[in-house]
Every structure is written in structure tokens, then in C-alpha cells.
Amino acid sequence: MNWLSMVANRLLWFVPTLVGLLAIVFVLSRVIPVDPAVLAAGENASAAQVQQVRERFGFDKPLPVQFVNYLRDVAQGNLGTSLFTQQPIVDDLASRLPATLELTIFAVLIAGLIGIPLGVLCGLHRNSWIDHVLRVVTVSGLAVASFWLAMQFQFLFSMKLGWLPLSGRIEGFPPEPVTGLMLVDAMIEGDREMIGSAFRHIILPTLTLALPAAATVVRFTRNGVIGVINSPSVAYQTAMGLPRRLIVWKYVLRMALTATVTQLGLIFGILLAGAVVVETVFDWPGLGAYAVRSILQSDYNAVMGFTLCTGALFVLINLLVDMLQAAIDPRGAA
Amino acid sequence: MTTTRRDALKAVAGSVALASLSIEGALAQAGGKFVYANNSPYDNLDPHTIFDTARAASRFNLYDGLYRWVDNPPKMIPWLAESHTVSDDGKVYTFKLRQNAKFHDGKPLTSADVVYSIERILALKKGPASLYLDSIKPGSTQAPDPHTVVFNLNGPSAIFLTTVPDILVVNSALVKANEKDGDWGEAWLTRNEAGSGSYALRRHDPAVGFTARRFAEHFAGWTGQPFDDLEFRTVLETNTRVLGLIRGDFQGADGYLPYDQIQRLRQSSNVQIIEQESMRVFILALNCTKPPMNNPNFRRALAYAFDYDGFIKSIMKDSVSRNPGPNPNNIWGTPAGLKGYSYNLDKAREELKKVTEPLRPITINALAGFSESEQAATLFQSTLRQIGVEVVVEVSPWSLVSTRMRKPDTQADIVPLWKSTYYVDPNNWVGELYGTRYHGTRTFSYYSNPEFDKRLDRALVSSSQEERRQLYEEMTQMVNDDAAGIFVYNTRWYGPYSSKVEGIRFSPVSNGQDIRWASLKR
User: Fold this and answer.
1) Mean pLDDT of B364-380
2) Which of A35-44, A281-290, B227-236, B393-402 shows the highest mean pLDDT?
3) pLDDT of B22 over the 70 cut
4) Which whole-number Å values give the CA distances from B470 to A164, B279, B332, B438, B475, in the listed order?
């Protein structure tokens, strides 16, 4: 019951949170003294051409009217049309979101797979040489700029060794998407060559995103393990003669993971919105590049659409994290 | 000797003969795939709404115009039209179309398609529309027979012919079938194609780019071993484009890479650099309206205070050519021997003494993300300080700069930027940059001079090439004397291509992206 009310409570806040987010972005985007109609009409456009674009997109109306109209359209599933691609924003986002999701999901998985075992190792061997070495590595991992890391990976694995492709999601031009997730599409097609190509292409961008994230996971898991390993319950279990492996992997890890799971949820949200650098370097056609271009060109509808999309995903992921935490430790759902 | 419209007609007729010869020959053999990495997105394929040179690929590979600009210096060759005539009053242009041109769906291309295309351009009021809105009334273009198009201009226009290559022809039946709510098929044509060009669209992904297959039935025919497939991709990161060229992933990339990257590419045996003097001039646009910027003495002081040689040699590493006037070096319209201004702080101080208005801090608005623009602003700031002019440098994205440029009271005092080639006529540069008629649209200066405007009005209607040359030379001299802008350099284009590619024909209009002439070396 507690669990259900927690979910209901979160869902109740879902819409007001997004409306608040949209209001902030709406105001911020309009504060910048840029006329998107000028940009959309082109640098050689006459004043009449600019005015026509302004009227067509409703930029000539007062700001409150524009916002209310926008919310009304959003409620009907219409996020407007992009000033530059001339396509519905929903279509633009739908064509780019899978690429970013695929990259982010892989990055979080890798970060978890690397970070959790190493964090446990550090926590169990606190202040040992393993702990010291991994602490240096994780601090370095947090400090390194993803732009620099991406380029170093390109130089080493693509240019010097020739093991992995330099950029893109697949060899050649991507085929018509089914789900938009390249690996899933390749599996649906049953094309082994395509699966291999998609897998090779995702390795470097994923590692670039995952390694700094893994460093965070290591640190949180380590702290969690240290906190639990010194608790009375573990002392009791040890005194009861339970095998150490069982204590660590069944009891310690379960309790220690609460903070890590929260962190993984946050990392997912951060990577989702912040994958732009990696997407740019690896020519990964996701949401990041679209968002940056939309901001630079003051493509208002696109900026709002991107914000709504990532905001909604972020809220949903947080809900998922809360549910997962409640499953791990039911006391938190109270 | 006077060159008249009739002379121009003869020249075009001569070119027709040459062009006819050049398209004969053996059938093309299998030619492979050409992958081009561009820094601009191919998120819109509509030839009537996009008009920037960076995205010339979709316009000139998928579509054809009546005439076409090729080579450098650019020459206009007959394309869908075989010839044209002009009425004695200069208002009626009649084009004769080829009989054998057809669209990618097999439908013959006729004059009705040309009429629909110009009406669509005028109705959408985007992209190239500004070239025609003042000179062609909607509904005035006629198609008396399937292979004749008659443009009835509002008045004589000396530049109309040079803008004809930008009337890219769409398949009217196909676009009409996809019109929605009177949108002239705009939403559909953004993602699809209705052309007759050398290549036909296969796939378009606005986040990635597009691919196209060679159109074997193109009216110009094929010789040699042209590429069978094209792939134009958006690759935003310069380093990735450069590494991709070195690795052989890409066969071509945009030609305005930073010079250090060009030097890096030169060291790779996989890459060749095709070097051409372009028609993209770098200027410091001066807002001539606000005191003391409205005082020619102050502007001359500014013009003497810019370190042209230092900028070109030290910052640009001699990768560009000094261009002392508003027109590119490689086009007519600049008086012989125009030296422009040189860096001389003593002369700058002398001019400054003549300024009676109180001095104020001058704002330079550089373009964010364009290192040359930012470096020019910083360099100018340091030299202007030496003559007692305080400078505030702001760096803003193009979106902000272009919005400010719409009004003289919001535009910064100085903006370092480039003027590209949209049509090959001095009017594209000196005319548009300094004519009062272009205020609020294509001018960056808000310079206004009745004597200049009088000459511009005449130059835009004159049918005499010699008279036009003289008029543009006089206008250029006026702009120089009044220091209406600070003219720095003409860009050199360093087209990076795979060393296995040959036959690239660079034109400043198509920006090295018109690929029908290129092939793999065998």
C-alpha cells in the first residue's frame, strides 16, 4: 500500500513538474534577444518574409498567449513544428531519441558492471593498495574531460590500431529504423554483419560516457559497503558463522546498493541530457546535437520539445529508481 | 567596345555548343560511392527554402536549374535551358528548354514545371525568394509551349540572368500531389525529393544526411566513371572529419577547415587538397549610423588601424589573399589598382584629429565559434587602443548577431564576418552591402549615399556590360573613400578530398559539392 501511494504521489507531481519546467525554459528562451523568425527566414530575407514567418509561428503574439497556446497544443500531443527542419517536433525527437537512449542505456549498464564490483572490492579492502589505486583511477576518471577522452579513444583504437570504427552508428548509411535502436533493429533483421557493425560502433562512445560514470559508481558503492560492513547486523551475521561470501553478496551488497541505485538513476538522467559532446565527436545522431543546434538557432519549439522529452524521461527514471529502492529496502517506501 | 545583352546571348549560345559536345561520349562505367562529411546539417532538402552555400549538395545534385554555375572564376553554362532571348526593353526573358530532360520518376520536364517552381519560390518567400520578389510578380511567368518559359519582369534587371541558376525546377505534378493545406508541398519536400538532377534521392535521415543514386537518364548524359552513389553526412566535429578523411572513411569534406587542420591533412598520402581562390570575402562590417561611426574620418581612422598584414600572415598563416575592396579579387567591378587601406597608426591618428564628435567605446560583435572573427576582434581591440579608441568585444552566436543586424540601432558598431557567393555579379557584394535599397536585409552597414544609390539604380537595369563595370568600379571607389567597411581578405578554398578522387570542379556557388563531374582514379 505504501509502495502504491509512493508511486501515485510521484505520478501526481509529474504534470505540474513538467509545466513548471516548460515555464522556466519558455521564459529563459524568450529573454535572449534573438528573433527566431529572422534566422528561419534566412540571412537574405526581406522584412516582409521575416514578418510572415513570425506570424506563421505565432511569435507576434504576447508571451502569455504564446505559452497558453503552447500548453494547449502539448496537451493534444502537438509539440509544434521545427523552424528549420519544417517537421513536427514529435517526429524530430522520435527519430533522434532512440540513438541517445541506446547510447545512454549501454553507458549506464557498463558503468554499473564496472563500478559496482570495483566499489565492493574497494569497500571490502579499505585502505589497501587496491583501494588506493582504484581511488586514484576513479578521481582521474571524474576529472578527465569526455571530449579529450573521446579523441584519445579515436586516436588509439581507430587510427593507430584500426580495431574500431571512428564514428557513426553503423557501416554506411543507417537503414530504415524499426525501433531506432540499432542493435535491436539488427537483431530483428537477423543480420549478423549488421549486429557486428552496430556493436563495434557503439563501443567507443559508450566507453567514453561510461568510464567517468563508473568512477562515480565505484565511489558510491565503496562508501555504501564501508557503511554496511561495519554495522551491527553484519557483525551479528559474522558471529552466527555465515560464510563471508554470503554476507557480502546477499546482505552487504543489498543494503549498500541503495545509494548506488539512486546514483545510477541520476547518472542516466545526466548522460541523457549531457551526451552531446560524445554524440558530436562520434557523429552519433542523437538528441544532443539536435538540442544544441536548436538552442543556437533559437528554434523555440525544438528547445521546448527537447526539454519536455528529457524532463519527462528524467522524472520517469527517478520514479523507477524510487520503485527499485523500495524493492531493495522496503523501509524507504514508507 | 560595349558588351550588350545581345553579346551575352551570343556567349551563351557558344557555351551551348560546347556543352552539347561535352555531354556526348561513351556510357559511364561503374564508379563506386562518394562519401562527403559536412559541418552543416542536411535537415531540409527543399531547394526553395534552403539557400546557404554550405548545403549546396542537395540543391545541385538532386535538382537542375535553367543554367548552372561551374568552375572558378564561375562561368554560367546552359543546363535545362538551351538558350534564351531578352526583349529590347529588357523586361521579358524567354528560355528554350531541352527536349530530353526528365524527372527522376520518368515524367518529362516541361515549362509548366518551371512556372510552378518560380511561383512556389515567390509564394514560400524563403531561401532564394529575395532574389526575385522585387522583380517578378506572382502569376506573371508563362509557359506558351512545353519547352518555352517566359519571365515577365517588373522592370529591366541586369542581375536577373545571373540568378537564374537558383531557380531549381521541381516536378510540379509530384509536389502538387503532396501539397497539404496550401503549403506548396513544403512539409513533404523537406524530407523528399522531386528533381531531375544528376542524382536521385534514395534515403534521407535529417539527423544523418542523405544518400543518392546516379540518375542514368539525366539529360546531360554521363562519361567516364562517375560515382554511382553519393552519401552526404553531417559530421559536426572538425577532428572527426579530418580523421575520417585520413582513414579513408570520407572521400570529401567542407573546404573551409581551420588552416592547421589543412596542414595536418597535407601530411596524409590518402588526402589531396584542391586549392582555389574563392569569392568569400572577410570584412569588418561597420555600422555607419551611430556617431562617431557616421563620420567618414572616424571610419578611415578605423580602416588605418587594422593590422591587415599581421592578421593575414601571423594569424591566418598566409592561407588567404589580401582583398582591398568589397568585391572578391577574382570578379570585375573593382577599379584597377585599388589599394585600399594599410596599417598606419600615424594616418589613423591624423584622421581621428578631424573627428569633432565625442569618442565613445566602440563595440565589436564577433561570431562565436568562428576563431577568425574572434581573433580579428581581439587584434583590432589592441591596435585601436593605441590610437585612444576604447573597444568592447562581445562574442555572440550568429543567431544573436543576425537578429541585431536587422536594425541599425541594435547592430554593433563593428562585426567581423564573411560575405558568401549567391550569384556571380558585383552586386552580390558591393551593391548589396552598401545600397540603401538593401537596408534591413542584405546590408550590414546601413551606409547611405545618394550618389552611390544613383549608380546602383542604373547598374541594376543597364544592359551594357561596359557601363555596369564602370558603375560598379565607381561605387567600389566611393565605398573605399568613405571607408564604409574594412576589407580584409578573400578566402582561399582548400577542398580536402581523397587522393583517389579526380575531376572535382569547384565553383564558389556550389562550393565543391556538385559531384557529377568527379570519379575515382582508375
Assistant:
1) 92
2) B227-236
3) no
4) 60, 20, 10, 21, 9
Give the side-chain half-sphere CA count within 13 A for A255. 14
Q: How many CA atoms lie within 13 A of B432 on its CB side?
A: 21
Quick one: cell of B101?
A: 530532360
Residue B30: predicted pLDDT: 63
The sign of the CA dihedral B435, B436, B441, B447 is positive
For residue A222, what is its C-alpha cell? 565503496
- What mean pLDDT value characterizes chain A? 86
All cell numbers assigned to B39: 559541418
Yes or no, beta carbons of B231 and A95 under 8 Å apart = no
* CB pairs < 8 Å spanning A and B: 136
**Model ipTM value:** 0.84
Give kind and range of the element (H or E) at residue B388.
Answer: none
How many whole angstroms separate alpha carbon B145 and alpha carbon A286? 49
| B267 occurs within a structural domain | no
Are B431 and B456 contained in the same domain? yes
Residues B173 and B62 in one domain: yes
Structural domain containing residue B49:
5-237+499-520
Domains of chain A as residue ranges with CATH: 12-75 (no CATH), 89-333 (1.10.3720.10)
- Side-chain half-sphere CA neighbours of A192 within 13 A: 0
The band of A43, judged by pLDDT with boundaries at 50, 70 and 90, is: low
Count of the separate structural domains present in chain B: 2
Q: Where are the alpha helices (DSSP H) in A144-284?
A: 146-153, 182-189, 192-229, 232-239, 244-246, 253-274, 276-281
Give Cα separations from B228 to A149, A173, B154, B422, B520 (angstroms): 37, 15, 43, 29, 11
Q: Do A49 and B422 touch (CB under 8 A)?
A: no
For the residues of B425-444, what is the DSSP string, one character each?
Answer: SGGGTHHHHH-GGGTTTT-S
C-alpha cell at B312: 593575414
CB contact under 8 A, B236 and A42: no
Residue B408 falls within a domain, yes or no?
Answer: yes
Q: Which of A224, A309, A227, A219 is nearest to A273 (CA)?
A: A309
Please list every residue in chain A whose beta carbon sits closer than 8 Å to the beta carbon of residue B205: 95, 173-174, 285
Amino acid, single-letter form, for residue A253: L
Distance CA B146, CA B102 (A): 12
Residue B205 pairs in a beta bridge with B209
Report yes or no: B275 and B323 within 8 Å, Cβ to Cβ.
no
In chain A, whose CA is at the least distance from the CA of B127? A42
Q: Phi-psi category of B144—alpha, beta or left, where left has phi over 0 and alpha has psi -120 to 50?
A: alpha
Are residue B342 and residue B388 in the same domain, yes or no?
A: yes
Tell me the pTM: 0.85
Out of A44, A50, A155, the one facing B442 most closely (by C-beta) is A44
Q: Are strands B199-205 and B209-214 parallel, antiparallel or unpaired?
A: antiparallel
Give strand ranges (E) for B359-468: 362-367, 391-396, 414-419
Q: Which residues of B touch A155 (CB under 8 A)?
A: 243
Mutate one of B134, B203, B403, B418 to test the A interface: name it (highest A CB count within 10 A): B403
